[in-house]
Design brief:
The chain has 724 residues and is α/β, with parallel strands linked by helices. It is built from 26 helices and twelve strands. β7 (247-253), α10 and β8 (277-283) form a beta-alpha-beta unit.
Amino acid sequence: MIVEKLKKLEEVEKKYDLLDISDSLKQEYAIRPSKEIEKVLEENRKEGRKLKLGVIGRVKAGKSSLINSLIFNGDTILPKAATPMTAALTVLEYSDEFKAEIEFYSKEDIKTLKEKHKEYEDRFNKLYKKYLEELKNEERAKKRVYRELKDTQLFAYYDQYEKIKNSNINVDELETDIKASSLEELNEKLKDYVGSSGKYMPFTKAVRLKVNKKELEEIEIIDTPGVNDPVISREERTRELLKYCDVIFIVSPSGQFLNEDDLSLIDRISSKDGIKEIYLIASQVDTQLYGSERRDNLYESLELISNKLTNYARDVFEKDDFLKESIVYKFIQKNKVLTTSAIAYAIAKKLGHKLDANEEHTFKLLQKFYEDYFQTNARDNLLKLSGINTLKELLEDVRKRKENILEEKNKKFEETQLKSIIKYQEALKKEIQNKITKLKNTNIEEMKEKSNNLLKIKKEASNVVNEEFKDLVEEFEIEAKNYLFKELDKFFRSARDDVKSSEDIESKTYTTTEKVEKKGLLGTIGRFFGGILGQDDWGYEEIQETHTETYTVVRAGIVRNSLEELTYNIESSIDVSLREFILKFRKNLFKHLVGVLREKVGDENLDVYIISSVLRKVVNSVEIPEISYADTFPSYLKQNGTLTRGEAEVFLNEAYNYISSLKGKVQNDIKSYLSNLHKELLSFNIADSIFKSYDEEIEKLKKEIENKELSIKRYEKILKELSF
């Protein structure tokens, strides 16, 4: 409807050459071309064809098993990752064929890995030297360094590059497109690329898997890597894909539910765009059926486990100020934790056939502790325990509602655009009506007299108008700068507080055992004879010492989200504020300039309608610059997870440096823009523009009056065509 309406208006504008009126009004009412709006609507409808499901979870959380159960009937198509480095970013979608598109790390990615590998070695050697002096023992010093660095992102870089370096493979020669005649053949070929010991695995960045499975029709699944992703470009892709997901499953093992790694991954979910549902899924629930929540009734046990995990999740989020701000918290309050068991699903599908050792062990336990449920009607109860059918129903429900949500989204967009178009249409009609009224009421002789009188005092009036305009421009620059700086201070203060709050100090206590000489005569004798007889322990004793290590910890994902939000807020705030100030400036301009002209020229010699039209053209010619700071965001700050010790300190310093440098840059940009705008506005000889345009408008009006009846009929015809 809106596209058709706007096209009609554009046809009338073109047909009657109304651009001198319409261009100015379009800027005022922010009217976009019909082709542009049509493209937006098409994109929105196109987006609605597929439901996007994002799955996140740490390594060995059971993500792959869950997806295999949901889509592949329990068959092992997605290999299980052994480490974060073996977990490629995988996108699953429907195709008539069985094929996979492999994306390998770029030369730039590998260069980054190499640099970080060197950084790790330098850090290791530096710490090793420090601890060797302290501990006087090479082996203990190495263990101490390894313990300190093994959970850091820097180690992930090091480990990944070690695999690449030792592979002796030229990535440029690798095949990027894999085709197969069946799912089984495709699965076999994929092992080389995403299997934990696959020969091409170290180079695999992402896989787009296209399979002929009806379960994937109108759906796209994004299976994300775990924490400590060693390649920033892959992490960026992961975040971008998750941003536009409709549904997100956060998978965490029931036995270690929502640990620090899980909370680090939740940092990836930083945008509300597109996300309609988020569910916490406790995987491997079968392992929790034999503890304190065990009841004779299987489903009562499952309900107790679900309630316990739900309460725990809500408690974790409510105690953390940052997690409470997460979009995930909104859904945790609304939805209970769902429980699943991929192994129960696999057993149900294989019942009556040979089970593997793990499946057989699990099934025997279920039969022993829940005899009434798994001796008879085992298949039905296994399927219910698996929770897979519940998830399938949930996806189907969201798929149906998604169409409604997209319709609402499109409807809202159309309503907003329609309001603007109607306002523009009415303003255009009003302009045409004013012209008709002007033609009917204007006396040509009176108009000539007004023009001559204005010409006599033009020089004097010009000085007054230019002086007033200069004062208004000066006021605009000062007010706009002060307001924008004040708003920016709020954003930067908030970002600094977020960074500071994300920092914590933790302590770790550990015990070391050291061999020392025994004191006294017995110790001396023992060492003497021990030396002769080759007994190294004689004359020595072991002493245990307890050490407490204090170090800095920072939640990198929280800081990153806060700084990205800062960048977005700055861009949008400057844009919106400048538009508001320019609108205010235009109103002040009209009010004050018309006031001084009336005072100097007199109402009898002034045509307010023409002055208004001229001023609108002057102000609407001012362009608002494109403000963007997205490219300034440092790659080092694009990290997630929990950083500790040296990594945490470096990250925090980088964060504070970024805030300071960005603030300085934005302030300079605002000063520069307002200064340029100030010069641009003052370059207008506003009085000359007014009087020149005034003369042009009068000349145009004279011509129209000479053909008064014809001109009025033309405008009435335009008005009629605009009234639809």
